[in-house]
Design a protein that fits this description.
Layout: E1 10-11, E2 24-29, E3 32-38, E4 41-43, E5 54-60, E6 63-68, E7 78-80, H1 82-88, H2 92-109, E8 120-122, E9 129-131, E10 137-138, E11 143-152, E12 155-161, E13 171-174, H3 181-193, E14 196-208, E15 213-223, E16 235-241, H4 255-265, E17 287-292, H5 297-300, H6 314-330, E18 333-338, H7 342-355, E19 359-361, H8 382-387, H9 402-419, E20 424-429, H10 431-441, H11 446-451, E21 459-463
Helix pairs in contact: 6-7, 9-10
Length: 464
Amino acid sequence: MIQDIAPSRLYNSWQNKAPRPESILMCFHESRLLAAVTEDGLRFPKYAESSADTTFLFSVDDEDFFLAEMPEAPAGFQYYTMRELRDRCEGKYLYAAFTAYHLHLWYADNRYCGRCRGDMQHDTAERALVCTECGHKIYPRINPAVIVGVVSRGRILITRYRRGYAHNALVAGFTEIGETLEETVAREVMEETGLHVRNIRYYKSQPWGMAQDILMGFFCEAEGDDSIRMDDNELKSAVWCKPDEIELQPQQHSLTNEMMKLFRDTNGHLPPEYSPVKSDDTSVKTHIYFTRHGETTMNAADHISGITDCELTAHGIEQAEQLAEICAAHREIGVIVCSPLKRARKTAEIIAEKLHVPIVTDARLREWDYGSYEDQPRSGTPEFQAAKREFGVRMKDGGESLLQLTHRVYSCIDDIRKNYPGQTVLCVCHGGVCRAAETYFHDMTTDAFSHFFMGNCELRQYEI
């Protein structure tokens, strides 16, 4: 977003200081800002190039910015609208331009006292204007406004304004007197689209000096009938879009664009902290897919591979790519939870790249620790198969028992239910883990468990 300028930093505290020759001047004329836009980026005049009166604004890193008037543009500079700069520039100087514009408007709108009509002058101790006649003091105006991502059945509501900005957006509006932010969300959505909403979740905020705003982003869920009844005085379009139908804004500056991108990149499955799906709604089902990694070098050699790390074979990579195609056809998978072992991680990465979804690594999905059976030929260790029947006995020489394995796998599934309610999760793990997961969802005898087999990149679906 526009304020994301790290490692640079904006220092907006007021200081009663004079400009230096290298200080930067922010010169506005009829709401346009004097600047030079080149291949090297955005530049502004320096104080050494002018003798204008100045007002301190803020600092970015060790550079001071001052407000000044310079009606005649010096060579190499011209006046731009803020929208022109937004469309052509990025980085810390664009953020400085937006913030300076916010303060410029406040100074320009408050030259006279609203109580007695006296002249306003700068306070010398803080960023404020004080009336020379009655002493009335005012501070910079900041307009609270909301950006709303309304979701329903795996889709998000995308709008376009009737006037102004021409690209895709979300429902937005200003907070009114006596209104909470949550009430603003509900009212604006109803006024613009005729929808009722529930489960309003805060996402992030953003300063937006272009309109003197502080924007606050929320996600919420459409309640009841999700038929859109658009206010055509405010909007020229309002449609439900699936994640792969979202067309982002051309720049990465806005909170609106980030929220649309988040919905797209998570395939419509927002992170739990932002998701408007109620976690205590027992009617909402969580879908979990389990798969085993692609073929590995140890699989091909028919060796026992528990916690021993090994790579995928070329065939294993092909299997993962084929599985990615199958998962992409479903479209509902929103997050991948995978084992930290390389074979599972590589399989997960191939699928995640196809689906554009995040990967969460969970050590509880690592393979069963087979102790000294590790890396032994399966055909030469008949006791290995027998050992799988002994639930409470650790695998030979330092391995895990089946009870230890199922304990960690069960706890992982419990957390998936808690963290991703109503979503679809793909677990990429191992054959032993898949055996344990099967017992979480279905009863199995000891004999059935010991003979359970999960093929490489085989997919099984469960519902909770």
